[in-house]
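Lecture notes, unit on protein representations.

Consider one protein chain, 122 amino acids long.
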Amino acid sequence: MSRPKNGDTRVSYKRRGHPLWYAYILHRLSGLGLVLFLPFHFYVLGLALNTEAMNAALAWTENPLAKAAEFGLVFLLAVHAFGGMRLLVLEFLPWSTHHKTLVAGAVALSFLVSGTFLLRAI
């Protein structure tokens, strides 16, 4: 990526296809996934008022599909959390050429956290 000719040292990452653009999209999609999960979560919490319904919901969580969905949920949560920390680094620390490394680290940590959760759930 070349620098602008007008002496501006800022680099534009608004182009599609750049790794930091993908990090932006992943952060937005993970947030959307978490928002879509919340009504379902509140519904299941509401089932706690009825013992039979709650026991049925808890029995459903032993389904392998539910375990895979839990892995996805923990992955979305981890991606969103680590992506948010990356954004805080961008906001409060000086510019560095290592921001792509931070993105890769955030995704790797997300897989580590969600994979550990999945292995404990199985």
